[in-house]
Amino acid sequence: MKKNIITISRQFGSGGRTVGHLIAEKLGIPFYDKELVDHIALESGFAPKFVEEHGEHSPGKSVFSYAFAPQGVPGVMNGLSTADFLWNIQCGAIMQLAEKGPCVIVGRNADYILKDRKDCFHAFIYADKEFRAERIVRLYGESDKSPLARLQDKDKRRSVNYQHYTGRVWGASENYDICLNTGTIGVETAADIIVSLIKNSDE
């Protein structure tokens, strides 16, 4: 079956968002990243900044952090915790976007949410810490945390969020159709490889 929907999961600083954007440009299909955040914000009533930070990051660095997250009350958010309410909205939004047709979706556990669709292609983008540390400083500037600490914090919280909601290991190769190291092959080449695979998927 033709693979029309591409999900991009990525380590922080690996260039996964850029890879996704390049794929969408090369294939002439919609790209959902900030647009997805805005859609979820509209549906949930949360601010876009809140959705961007909490939609794919756990409250802490352990799965136990969810046990201490604020819990819902009857009649408010269907009694769900903030995290669970946001997860449900996120799932619905991603499924709706996939129903619209070919697209690229970055992050937010889209690979799991769309795992039962046969028209999806799931990619994981990663790179060594040195490559990613240099890249985040170049793109986002310095902060009070060291680049390596920023990488570890973001990746850990993405990993915990993924494990909590999917029961799977974030970054494990068996969860994706392809894993690409941008630190070795570069962002542009990673995008070209995926585009080539998509174009040949119905042959």
Sequence of secondary-structure elements: EHEHHHEHEHHEHH
* SSE-based structural type: alpha/beta
User: What order do the strands of the largest sheet run in, or round the barrel if closed?
Assistant: 2-3-1-4-5
Number of strands: 5
Helix coverage percent: 40-55%
Describe the structure.
This protein has 203 residues and is of the alpha/beta class. Helix content is 50%, strand content 11%. It is built from nine helices and five strands. It has helices spanning 16-27, 34-44, 48-54, 82-100, 110-113, 129-140, 147-166, 182-185, 187-199, and strands spanning 5-10, 31-32, 103-106, 120-126, 178-181. Strands 2-3-1-4-5 form a five-stranded parallel sheet, with helices on both faces. α2 packs across α3 and α6 packs across α7 (147-166). The longest helix has 20 residues, at 147-166. It is globular. The termini are close together. The relative contact order is 0.23.
List keywords for this structure.
50% helix; alpha/beta; 203 residues
Give the structure's gist in a few sentences.
With 203 residues, the protein is an alpha/beta fold.
Describe the protein's topology:
Blueprint: E1 5-10, H1 16-27, E2 31-32, H2 34-44, H3 48-54, H4 82-100, E3 103-106, H5 110-113, E4 120-126, H6 129-140, H7 147-166, E5 178-181, H8 182-185, H9 187-199
Parallel strand pairs: 1-3, 1-4, 2-3, 4-5
